[in-house]
Predict the 3D structure of the following.
Amino acid sequence: MAFSNNAKTVLERRYLTRDEEGNVIETIEGMFKRVADHVALADSIYNKEADIEELSNNFYNVMMEQEFMPNSPTLMNAGKELGQLSACFVLPIEDSMEGIFDAIKNAALIHKSGGGTGFSFSRLRPKGATVKSTGGVASGPVSFMKVFNSATEAVKQGGTRRGANMGILRVDHPDIMEFIECKKDTTEITNFNISVGLTEKFMEAVEKGEDYELIDPHNGKSTGTLNARTVYKHIVEMAWSTGEPGIIFLDRINRKSTVPGLGEMESTNPCGEQPLLPYESCNLGSINLAKMIKKGTNGYEVDYDRLGEVVDIGVHFLDNVIDINRYPLQEIDEMTRKTRKIGLGVMGFADMLFHLGIPYNSQQGVDFAHKIMKFIDERSKKKSQELAEIRGVFPAYEDSIFYNEGIKMRNSTTTTIAPTGTISIIAGASSGVEPLFAISFVRNVMDNDRLLEVHPYFEQIAKERGFYSEELMEKIAEEGTISHIEGIPEDVKKVFVTAHDVSPFWHIKMQAAFQDNVDNAVSKTVNFRREATREDVEEVYMLAYKLGCKGITIYRDGSRENQVLSTLKKH
Ligand code: UDP
């Protein structure tokens, strides 16, 4: 079996079934069989004669071969009592005590099942506004975020994994300045990622250096103005110093909605890759590109035939998940079934580039990203159309862009690039579309385990080309990059680049290349060196806007404690 020790550790800790005393009673094969059998069952809804066993075998094989993995909740919960299989949810928060505490309760139920929640706090009246029923004053979005945060903290103890949240505030909310710096103290609101929801109007005002209006969502009235550049610079300043807030381009997200007839999206899921309508959920799955290669006459090449097959299996799998999912709320059940959004994406992209000898930070790399994601996106749509012929179109079809185009789809979206934080460990792949963090590094697995790892293909090349030594691997772990290390051939250095060798410019170019061929969004962190300036950050934000990204998250090395991945070198 090809599962690494890291993969086994992760699976044993949280994924494999346990008995009442907490003993693991499932093998890895058993887990994938449980998932495959359960997900395959959905076919019988549409065809009483369907060969469930054969389908289950197909599902089982792609997971066992590490070619495809569904998001963690599916692996954890499929075929079990909980049965909640989605990673991503967006919940609305109404401007009332009832509304706010309903959302907290709903989030708790979702976190318990391993899902993450996104919220927009934009509908809450600003701090200091009057509360009619009591004559008191409102405490504002940021103070309520702290309540959501504490609830998440408490649920964390009993849930399958750490509940994650996204908190969004529109840039024209009167409390925007307080929001921008609400995580200045990096020990605060730690169960949230935060992003400012930017509008086109705001971006135009930034470009022209103009003021823009702040609106009280409660009554729609202007409460005053702020200078757009001042606010923008403040966002940049905070992101430079702590990595947060991120930004999302709300108008762009809504312009690209495939179901505009169902209203506006106001938030994404916690890691930003999945904008959703209120009460929508989405299940994700990722193809491991490292496995989609074959030996050709001139070294490795992409195995497009197999990739196409795995896309078909992935779409089929994810569409089935919608039917067998046990939704935590009636509203979520209804919304999710209406749009039938799925998010097929990739992991192991950096591994694939290593095998193909293409540098991540190059036009060749970006062009290749475009090509491979276009292939996956088109193929996934073709499969969704095939499913629509048998199973019918998604119920909100008439509210969608596909209706006007006359294209019958089973799913209103098919593609998303997830971070694949844990499933990439299970599949032994580089995460999502990120460059490798380091050729050799220390990984903090789950809680506090630290493990040293060398990239297996690099190790193989080093041995083949005769420059392997344990001493060298140690040295690489110290440095985190091979770019300054002597004794490694130049052509190897060019290809085996890591996150810090890749300049922010190429990070964004890569994100944009994937975004061009993805319905939903792309999970991506733009890494900056510690020495990067505020101007560098500002420039990259503008570039993300100009290149059509839906949002951006940056991280400047050393600016936040408790990094998940860290090189040995102390900064
Ligand atoms: N997520 C979460 N808690 C976690 C990790 C992930 O709620 O600890 C959710 C969140 O919505 C995130 C999504 O799962 O955006 C996908 O994350 P990832 O791809 O890293 O999950 P994996 O399937 O690898 O566990």
User: Anything to note?
Assistant: The pocket of uridine-5'-diphosphate is lined by residues 71-72, 87-88, 115-116, 161-162, 164, 269-271, 273, 418-423 (CB under 6 Å). The chain has a mean pLDDT of 94.
